[in-house]
Amino acid sequence: MTDTAASARGEIPETTTETDGKGGFSRQTNAFTTPFGDGPGELPVEAGRYRLIAALICPWAHRQLIVREVLGLQDAISVGIVNPRRDDRGWNFSLDEGGVDPVLGIEFLMDAYRAADPDYDRRATVPAVVDVTTGKVVTNDYHHLSTQFETAWRTLHAPDAPDLYPEELRGEIDALSTWLFDTVNNGVYKCGFATGQEAYDAAYDALFAGLDELEERLATRRFLFGDHITDADVRLYVTLARFDAAYYGGFKANRQRLVDFEHLWVYARDLYQTPGFGSTTDFQAIKEGYFGSQGVTSAYGIIPKGPDQSGWDAPHGREALSATPQERFRRR
Ligand SMILES: N[C@@H](CCC(=O)N[C@@H](CS)C(=O)NCC(=O)O)C(=O)O
């Protein structure tokens, strides 16, 4: 991703390997994309067989942690957490006793990628799902993992689990999620990892134009699709939760902070105060990850003391927008 050698020397890296030739950030594609399901060649759904490896800094991994909790899949899928500070050896399990993941017995996430493909030479990214029976990564398809948890894993959901991906909304949720990824979720990375002024300016303009659209949409709707939380809200939330702590300063996404948006800020708080969202949000890990890892925000490894996060617990008043104020989830 970034020029890690330069970072290690304490310099701001000048190049990334994932650029479009004009200084724009162009993300690598996923290597392991076999879906969960009962079709031929698909990954069989089985309680206790898989371990989800996540970093609490990472928005793509955070989404999967939220959905796993909201659906009550904690007993079916275990979780391993890497140190949010990624060093030049990649994600590692140094927070665990002895520096190894207690289930997989590995020190580095790369070990599970190499178990799956000995020639793997790309970034070992989170989220990654590892089959504990083989120690191999079976999917790192962060685009589709949450919707697979919502559909293919249904038989293992808690009995009162909500429907985050209602069938009649799937087309619209997918369309919005694609736009969200490009404009907002990855939009902040395009600001942060741009290596040219024009690319940065364009990313900044697109990001804030997108946030303005969402601000308007959420002025009259409690959640993106109305009264109930869907997979699309999970996708937007993870970027909003990192906005003031990391992207505003670290990625120069600084036209305004999240707390300066009238509707987006209360919307984000409404979600934060929902089971599964706040419980998986770790602002300290987010700051350590973005400012303490190798990369463009971390030339000197200094972790900012602020911002004050106490506002996340304040009342949000969003119930008034909803026909089902006490019921944020759609039950099946
Ligand atoms: N799998 C995707 C997205 C996941 C992703 O980028 N995760 C980040 C953390 S938010 C990561 O694991 N980065 C590891 C690295 O850059 O070495 C990708 O390869 O771009």
From TrEMBL:
Q: Does the keyword Transferase apply?
A: yes
What UniProt keywords apply to this chain's record, in alphabetical order? Transferase
Q: Where does glutathione bind?
A: 91, 123-126
Q: Name one GO cellular component term.
A: cytoplasm
Gene3D superfamilies listed in its UniProt record: 1.20.1050.10, Glutaredoxin
Pfam families, per the entry: GST_C_2
SUPFAM superfamilies reported in the protein's UniProt record: GST C-terminal domain-like
Record site feature (Lowers pKa of active site Cys), residues:
247, 290
Q: Where is this region: Disordered?
A: 1-40, 309-332
Q: Which residues form a coiled coil?
A: none
Enzyme category, top tier: transferase
**Native organism taxonomy:** Bacteria, Bacillati, Actinomycetota, Actinomycetes, Micrococcales
Assigned EC number: 2.5.1.18
Superkingdom of origin: Bacteria
Question: Start and end of every GST C-terminal domain?
Answer: 166-299
**Its Gene Ontology molecular function terms?**
glutathione transferase activity
Question: Which residue positions are annotated as catalytic?
Answer: 58 (nucleophile), 189 (proton donor/acceptor)
- Protein name as catalogued: Glutathione S-transferase, omega
Which PROSITE patterns does the record match to this protein?
GST_CTER
